[in-house]
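[step 3/7] fold_predict: job queued, chain A
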Amino acid sequence: WDPPTEPNGRPYYILTLQEAGMSPDMLSPGTPAVNKTIKQATTDNVFLFTKLRKYFPYVLTVTPATGAGPAYNQTSTMYLRTDDDVPSS
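[step 4/7] structure written:
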């Protein structure tokens, strides 16, 4: 994401990564999904989430904020899926 062109105070970002579904091979039919959520605040405009499930759907939201509080009306939402395993050589 890009930093604001005219920041009003010191900007930071609230990142929320939530599991968006369930993997059929991990749950039996009729079992509700346990959607884990990771929430992180950062001043960087790059962030690496680790230890995610392979080939799994996630929803990422990025909300800009300053000391005055979050700007929820500027939240960006992205629907993602992690990669599958990398083939061994």
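[step 5/7] annotate
Residues 13-81 form a domain with the Immunoglobulin-like fold (CATH 2.60.40).
The mean pLDDT is 82.
exit 0
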